[in-house]
Amino acid sequence: MNPSNSTAIRRRHLLALAAAALPTASFAQPGATGAWPEKPLRMFVGYAAGSGIDTAARQLAHRIEVLAGQPVVVDNRPGALGNLAAQAVAAARGDANTILFTPNSTHAANIHLFKKLPFDPVQDFTPVSSVATLGFVLVCDPKAVNVTSVQELVTALRREPGRWAYGTGNATGLVAGAMFKTLTGTDMLAVPYKSVPPAMTDLMGGRLQLVFADATLAIPLVRAGKLRALAVSGSRRMAALPQVPTMAEAGVPKYDLTAWFAVFQPAGVAPEHNARMASLVQRALQDPQLAESLRSIGAEPESSTPAELAQRVATDTERWGALVKLAGIEAE
């Protein structure tokens, strides 16, 4: 054998052995020695326990626990339309075990609603995956409000301008109400809450007349007859509330407002840990039980790659700027 050929063969053999010895822990099976994550994950949620987004976050966290073989601790940091939770995650730069479960508020809407954010929605985060899209539901208490349709509501609002109040617990609810006022030429008082559940409590307690509620919370109360749904905010009816018209169908043309949930890690996370986290979320969303559970509360499961989520943030930041302008909201 030619000595040079023999040397080349040995070199290829050594390279093959070296490649086989390279660490593969980041994609190892749960429970494998050195697999990531090797300790519990901490999932920050910017809304109160029991809110719609909290419900979805805990469902996803449970599936990730099963797949990753590590606990996922949900840390609720309600306030400032999700900014408090996002700020906490942004401060954990490089920590792949810290994740943010958030709606589009923190990464598309809030930059238009606040004069200054305590974080940069792009520079301070590493996108992981989208989780779901969802619409909102305009609800009232049938015992306290004698309207059964959006047109009846508009008539009542025009008859008594400024005397009706609606609760808002997140950015989408805030914009939803402002858009409604702008497109119908009506006047209502917006009452802000840290999250939607306390707004719903006040609605059923007679302290509010309306809430633009995330479907997660609205659906069970509507089905139980405790609240009346007047319309949904998106361009299509919800599978969970097929009898409830869209705003456009109910007589408010050009009204189309949907939100999304997604997962982010802090900036500076190792690429292999970001890829692993994205894989965990994507696999969790393939679980039929999780998908059905999300659909039952008005959310449509929708995973993505990190790059696709980054593009969604860029596109929706521009779109929400136009929506906030249409709603006539000034940054605070």
UniProtKB/TrEMBL annotation:
Residue spans crossing the bilayer: none
InterPro entries: BUG, Bug_dom1, TAT_signal
Gene3D superfamilies in UniProt: Bordetella uptake gene, domain 1 (3.40.190.150), Periplasmic binding protein-like II (3.40.190.10)
Domain of life of the organism encoding this protein: Bacteria
Cited PROSITE patterns: TAT
Signal peptide positions on this chain: 1-28
Family: Belongs to the UPF0065 (bug) family.
Designated name of the protein: Tripartite tricarboxylate transporter substrate-binding protein
The species this protein was found in: Variovorax ureilyticus
Source organism phylogeny: Bacteria, Pseudomonadati, Pseudomonadota, Betaproteobacteria, Burkholderiales
